[in-house]
Amino acid sequence: MDTKNFKVNSENSLVEWIGRKVTGAHNGTIEVKEGNFNFENNILSSGKFVINIRSIKILDIDDSETNAQFANHLASDDFFNSDQFPDAVFEIKHAEPGENNFYHVTGDLTIKGITHSLETTLQIVKTDNVAVLDTKIVIDRTKFNIKFRSSNFFSNLGDTLIYNNFDLNVHLVADVQ
């Protein structure tokens, strides 16, 4: 059996996030801390990546004071509690190959110490030395005890409602080990 291991290059990898509310959306980036992918006979067999929750950046708010207030709020227990839970982890449990380098993946996502299984589709373009993974993961934040301004837990929020789902657009570049 031909096994190849790839290690994520944090410098060349990035996660972009989008959160939506009634009155619009916010977006930004999160640094990738580490990760790895394993291929058996050129087919993805396992993988894992870790993102640094403390590195969340907000790109759509230009005013530095407002941006800092929002960043501090995201770091608080209303959202990610990044002092206690500095990392979020996605671990691939099963990968089913499809057409054009796409895989249907089942994996475990851990945020705030809470783990839930989810399914997504990812694309991995691989050479002998580099594997590039791209995927969009849609996350229901309420499953991870992120309830702030959620209609599942609060009523009469009006235009202060924050939608439960947020997106992570993941771009990982990994080098063969």
UniProtKB/TrEMBL annotation:
Domain Lipid/polyisoprenoid-binding YceI-like: 5-175
Designated name of the protein: Lipid-binding protein
